[in-house]
Amino acid sequence: MARLAVDVMLKPEILDPQGQAIARKLPQMGFEGIAGVRQGKRFELVVEGPADEAAVERVRKIADTLLANPVIETYEVHVLSDN
């Protein structure tokens, strides 16, 4: 079995109010030097078999159809382990 992750983020041109709220709060908490924050989501999937190109492509199809909204979000697929 292999573990793959899908990191989903809002496209840069889409307003991210949660990220903005976090960015505003950081200096109040003593964290300086942060120019911006974007909030996202992460999904980890365990697939049967190796993390080969077929498994990565299957996870991409899942992300395209269920995990991300392609109108406002982008995503990246990462192989975490190939056991």
From TrEMBL:
Q: Give compartment(s).
A: Cytoplasm
Q: Which domain of life is it from?
A: Bacteria
The question of whether Cell membrane is a record keyword is answered with: no
EC class: ligase
Q: Does the keyword Ligase apply?
A: yes
Provide the E.C. number(s) assigned to this enzyme.
6.3.5.3
Signal peptide stretch: none
State the oligomer form and interacting partners: Part of the FGAM synthase complex composed of 1 PurL, 1 PurQ and 2 PurS subunits.
Q: Which HAMAP family match?
A: PurS
What name does the UniProt record give this protein? Phosphoribosylformylglycinamidine synthase subunit PurS
Lineage, top ranks: Bacteria, Bacillati, Actinomycetota, Actinomycetes, Streptosporangiales
